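Support request from a user on the community tier.

User writes: "When I paste my C-alpha cells into the form, the page sometimes reloads and wipes my input. The last time it worked, I copied everything first. Here is what I submitted, just in case something in the input itself triggers the reload:"
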C-alpha cells in the first residue's frame, strides 16, 4: 500500500512500499548518480519517485541500512543467477544424468571451476575499484591485485601514491602461496564494507533541497516534465523546489549575451542591492557585461548604501532570479549545465 504524504516511516524496511525504498536508494547515492538513474526511468516512475523523495523527511540510519542491504543482496543474487556458476552446473548435471555419472563429472570439473578470489571486484571499473581499495593496507592491495587481470592491476597500481606503489610492489614480489582461509577472510571483510559503502557519505534526510539538487543535474526536458506533473497536484511544492534549484550565485553560469538580456530588465538600485552580498566572481561577471560608466555607478551605489537588511538583499536577488528563470523558459537565455548545450545548433 502506498505511503500517505507526511506519514512517519516505519522502523523496518519490510514494512516499506517499493516506491519508498526506491526513494531512499536515490537519496543514498547522492545527486550526481541520482540524476543518471532518473534519466533511465519512464516519466511516470520519475514523477512518483520524485514526489516520494520530496516528502521523505528524515530516514533513520538503521532503516536506510536495511534498504541498502536488501538492494545489494538482490543485485548480487541477480548477477550470480545471470552468470551461472558451479551450483548452477550441479543442478543441470543432477537433472540430466544419473546420480553416479553426475557425481563423477562433478568431481572432474570441480577443481577447474572454483570461485576466483575477489570475483566480486573483477567487473568493477578501475577508477571505482581504486577508490574502494586505495586506503587499504599495502598487503591487502597486493593480495587483491594478484588476483586481478594484469591490465586492471596495472591501472590500480598507477593510481596509487608513489610510496604506496613501492610498498605494494615489494609485497607482490615477496608474496608466496597464501592460505585460502586468509583470502576468504579478506574477501569477507571487503564484501561487507562494499555492502555498506553507500551509507558512509550520504545525506541524512530527503526533502525539497535534495529534490532541487537532483533536478538541477537532470536534463531540461526531464526536469520540465517532472515539474509540470507535480504542479498539477502541488503547485506550492513546485514553487519551493524552483526557488532552491537556481540561486542568485548561479547567474555566473549564464553566458554574456544572457547576462546582458537580464540586465536590461533590472534597474540599477535593485542590482546594487542584490550585489551587496554577491561573490567577487559574480560581481566581475555582471560588471563585465556593463559599460564602464554604468558599472562605476553601481559600485558607487553599493559603497554609499550603508547597512541593509539581509532579507531585503535576498528579496532583490530572488526577483532577479525570477527574471532569469522567465527568460530561460522563453528560450532567450541559456544556463550552463541545465541541458542548454544539447539544444544548440551550430
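"...and here is what came back when it finally went through:"
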Amino acid at each position: 500500500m502506498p505511503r500517505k504524504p507526511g506519514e512517519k516511516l516505519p522502523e523496518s524496511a519490510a514494512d516499506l512500499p517499493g516506491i519508498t525504498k526506491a526513494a531512499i536508494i536515490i537519496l543514498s547515492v547522492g545527486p550526481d548518480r541520482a540524476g543518471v538513474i532518473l534519466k533511465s526511468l519512464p516519466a511516470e516512475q520519475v514523477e512518483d519517485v520524485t514526489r516520494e523523495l520530496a516528502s521523505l523527511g528524515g530516514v533513520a540510519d538503521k532503516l536506510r541500512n536495511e534498504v541498502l542491504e536488501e538492494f545489494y543482496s538482490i543485485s548480487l543474487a541477480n548477477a550470480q543467477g545471470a552468470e551461472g556458476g558451479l551450483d548452477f552446473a550441479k543442478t543441470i548435471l543432477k537433472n540430466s544424468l544419473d546420480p553416479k555419472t553426475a557425481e563423477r563429472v562433478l568431481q572432474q570439473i570441480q577443481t577447474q571451476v572454483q570461485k576466483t578470489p575477489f570475483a566480486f571486484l573483477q567487473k568493477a571499473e578501475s577508477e571505482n575499484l581504486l577508490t574502494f581499495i586505495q586506503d587499504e593496507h599495502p598487503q591487502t592491495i597486493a593480495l587483491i591485485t594478484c588476483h586481478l587481470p594484469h591490465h586492471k592491476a596495472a591501472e590500480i597500481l598507477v593510481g596509487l601514491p608513489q610510496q604506496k606503489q613501492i610498498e605494494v610492489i615489494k609485497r607482490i614480489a615477496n608474496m608466496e602461496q597464501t592460505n585460502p582461509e586468509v583470502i576468504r577472510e579478506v574477501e569477507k571483510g571487503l564484501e561487507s564494507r562494499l555492502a555498506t559503502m553507500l551509507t558512509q557519505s550520504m545525506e541524512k534526510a530527503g526533502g525539497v533541497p535534495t529534490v532541487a539538487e537532483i533536478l538541477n543535474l537532470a536534463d531540461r526536458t526531464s526536469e520540465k516534465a517532472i515539474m509540470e506533473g507535480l504542479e498539477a497536484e502541488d503547485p506550492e511544492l513546485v514553487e519551493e523546489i524552483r526557488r532552491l534549484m537556481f540561486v542568485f550565485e548561479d547567474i555566473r553560469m549564464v553566458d554574456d549575451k544572457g547576462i546582458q538580456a537580464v540586465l536590461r530588465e533590472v534597474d540599477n538600485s535593485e542590482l546594487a542591492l542584490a550585489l551587496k552580498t554577491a561573490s567577487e566572481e559574480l560581481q566581475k561577471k555582471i560588471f563585465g557585461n556593463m559599460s564602464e560608466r554604468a558599472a562605476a555607478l553601481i559600485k558607487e551605489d553599493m559603497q554609499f548604501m550603508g547597512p541593509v537588511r539581509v532579507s531585503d538583499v535576498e528579496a532583490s536577488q530572488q526577483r532577479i532570479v525570477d527574471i532569469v528563470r522567465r527568460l530561460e523558459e522563453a528560450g532567450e537565455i541559456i544556463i550552463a549545465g541545465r541541458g542548454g548545450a544539447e539544444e544548440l545548433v551550430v
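Agent notes: The reload is a front-end session timeout and is unrelated to the input. The radius of gyration is 28 Å. Residues 215 and 224 are 9 Å apart (CA to CA). Escalated to web team.
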